[in-house]
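Entry 14. Structure prediction run on the chain below.
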Amino acid sequence: MIGAMRVIVDYRPALRARSGVGEYVHQAVRAFARRYPGDSLTLFTSSWKDRPDSALAALGPAVRVSDHRIPVGVLNLAWHRVEWPPVEQIARGRYDVAFSPHPLLLPARRAAQLVMVHDLDFMRHPVRSGREIGRDYPRLAPDHARRARRVVVPSRYTAREVIEQFNVPEARVVVCPPGVPEWHDAARRPFAADGYILFMGTLEPRKNVGGLLDAYGRLLARRPNAPRLLMAGKAGPGADRWLGALAQPPLAGHVEALGYVSDADRQQAYAGARMLVLPSFEEGFGMPALEAMSLGVPVVAARRGNLPDLVGDAGVLVDPEDVESMVAALDALLRDDGFAEAAGRRGVERSRQFTWERTAEALHEAFIAALQER
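Output returned:
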């Protein structure tokens, strides 16, 4: 029988503007602190200039923030190359579980180590990943996953990929899907028939931003009065060429880049949308699709990765490499209000199975299993 656990989590992905991994770890630890107040939870952060939000310490009586003025690149170089120093030495504590919300182990002396693999795009396309990810993850992640006590994944799709490509035993892979946000008055939101087309996510090659802009330009040729396209997300590698295209015909005056959208503004961004478009080449889960679905926004999504399982009949699935299929999907949801609204209602129903409390419970079970195995 395992009693109270001492858990340390690498919170660094959530330290600045939170994208997919950062949002997952932030919401997961919030839910974990509420659901398991008897377990101590240490949030490890390090950065030369960024400091954690002071509100983190108020998540629960057993939550502690271990913040260090160590440059991320310096610490990662030491951890990725020689797996030193152990996190216990830096955080000055003893821990039962060390959870890394990315594919590389959190170096530890005694703690049971768990990693999380959100997708394997970094293995297939390392050049379109960030410099550090493209350099280290393809080389190290398979070995780290095999050494981890448990590998956490957001979907059954990613679980199959980890089992097959990293040769990790199925029993050591744990599916912990994310949950929907705690929206304000979400049930009262009417369908935005006159809304805009929304893209939510980092502007990077994996998200197929170029294909989306091409499809939207063709849509304008057929529907000059088509709704605006709003692109919400921080600029990633390669974004300059897309942002430059927004000032040129046919996109000028029709597409707006909003940049990173904060928690406080995210619900409003979805609420004004006629549809969400997520034409990614790879999605281990597809958090923007789930967020849109939870508010009744129909989705145009790529028939890739986990998106078909997640979206189902809550929108239209397309081939991300077939621009014309994307144009046809956009046109279908614009042409038929009844079809679009019905897809949105189905999305609300599908989204109800995803809660952050369930995420916390699945993580707790994974931590216990890792400790028992150790």
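The first helix runs from residue 20 to 35.
Filed with the rest of this week's runs.
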